[in-house]
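Example S7 (structure tokens).
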């Protein structure tokens, strides 16, 4: 009996443990921290051995294969020792994919991947397909493979999940964009992060497809210098394409194989340039899977978007409050500020992942009247924008930030939480940050 050791007792770890046990592996789960009560109950019920608060090396180095949670960097000594000993260290995605016959749609990118994943799933589900959604979103992929039989999966894939693949090959891969993010995990080298994202296509074959953003410099440079066997389908809002997706006369055009589709961009439920691109990517997946144009059009017109991503909260005294807590990097915040049409009070800050804020300067000069910092260390933000806006202030939590925003905003303004940073200094995660912001707004 093969032994699988799972490092990390969270969503992906416990899901993998359940699937491995079903596949007759001897399973051991090890978490350096405390395992959440709900996951502990699942492991106990399934009779899976686990430990918390430590890593017992004798148990771990005895593994035939190790599944590492995406939150654990490759640089930690334990992972390095496993690699040195020749023990394969995989991601949940790699482990689970071998046990399903379902066709896989993999979606990655620095921004837009959650919206594109949810929109694609919405379209395929509305078309009556037996489709699951997993990866960086919802229930673990491994758990779904263990418990349900699907024909298709739409997987949102982070660079960390792609770092742990060996044979994983989606039938359709989507790359929304690549901008500097998580550089603290990639030796502060952008090219390492790009290589990680592009792993999504490395095992694809001639019968597979790579849908990508033609307007993205990093992706284009990689494609010029590297080979993929997949059929390329680009999308662009700047150029007219022969094949793929493009805009002409305010119409969204999609052409894959012989399947053509057009609709007015004014009719899209999600507005803004970045959302047009998300619609293009999802639309191309739909057309490759022969979804009827009527179904696709309806779905693009009625999709409601993603919580914590440019999510309108309330309008108070003529001021619109927007929760964009999911903007955990500079590029996501760029999209957010670009989409606003009113004077803006911007709440920003958190755990800096090697951010360069200079790209935001033109937008901040044009639109932002006040900056409210929401992080433990705000030096970089104050240095970059201190001379650009009249008002800049540090706050220690969501409630205080919202109260200050309320005081400095006036009728016709927008107050937006778009942090451009991770949330781990003051919050559990970006969802917790977004919820605290929304609660603070509702209490005004």
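Recovered sequence:
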């Amino acid at each position: 009996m093969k032994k699988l050791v799972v490092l990390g007792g969270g969503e992906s770890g416990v899901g993998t443990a359940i699937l491995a046990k079903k596949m007759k592996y001897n399973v051991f789960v090890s978490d350096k921290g405390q395992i959440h009560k709900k996951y502990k109950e699942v492991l106990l019920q399934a009779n899976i051995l686990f430990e918390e608060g430590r890593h017992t090396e004798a148990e771990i180095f005895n593994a035939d294969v190790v599944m590492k949670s995406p939150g654990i960097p490759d640089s930690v000594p334990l992972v390095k020792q496993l690699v040195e000993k020749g023990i394969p260290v995989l991601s949940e995605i790699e482990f689970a994919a071998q046990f399903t016959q379902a066709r896989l749609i993999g979606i990655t990118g620095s921004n837009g991947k959650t919206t594109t994943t949810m929109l694609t799933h919405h379209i395929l589900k509305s078309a009556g397909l037996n489709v699951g959604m997993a990866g960086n979103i919802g229930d673990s992929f491994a758990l779904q493979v263990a418990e349900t039989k699907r024909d298709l999966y739409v997987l949102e894939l982070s660079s960390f999940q792609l770092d742990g693949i060996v044979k994983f090959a989606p039938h359709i891969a989507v790359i929304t964009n690549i901008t500097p993010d998580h550089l603290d995990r990639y030796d502060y080298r952008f090219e390492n992060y790009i290589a990680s994202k592009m792993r999504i296509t490395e095992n694809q074959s001639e019968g597979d497809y790579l849908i990508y953003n033609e307007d993205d410099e990093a992706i284009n440079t990689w494609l010029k210098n590297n080979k993929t066997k997949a059929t390329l389908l680009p999308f662009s809002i700047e150029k007219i394409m022969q094949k793929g997706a493009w805009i002409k006369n305010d119409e969204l055009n999609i052409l894959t194989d012989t399947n053509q589709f057009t609709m007015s961009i004014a009719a899209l439920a999600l507005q803004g340039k970045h959302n047009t691109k998300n619609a293009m990517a999802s639309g191309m997946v739909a057309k490759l899977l022969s979804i009827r144009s009527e179904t696709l059009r309806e779905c693009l017109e009625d999709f409601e978007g993603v919580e914590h991503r440019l999510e309108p909260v309330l309008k108070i005294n003529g001021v619109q409050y927007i929760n964009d807590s999911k903007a955990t990097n500079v590029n996501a915040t760029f999209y957010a500020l670009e989409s606003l049409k009113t004077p803006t009070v911007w709440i920003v800050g958190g755990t800096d992942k090697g951010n360069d804020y200079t790209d935001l300067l033109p937008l901040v000069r044009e639109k932002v009247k006040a900056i409210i910092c929401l992080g433990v260390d705000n030096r970089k933000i104050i240095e970059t924008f201190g001379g650009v806006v009249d008002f800049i202030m540090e706050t220690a939590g969501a409630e205080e930030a919202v109260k200050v925003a309320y005081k400095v905003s006036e009728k016709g303004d927008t107050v937006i939480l778009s942090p451009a940073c991770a949330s781990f200094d003051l919050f559990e995660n970006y969802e917790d940050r977004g919820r605290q912001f929304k609660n603070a707004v509702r209490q005004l």
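Notes on this example. The longest strand covers residues 368-374.
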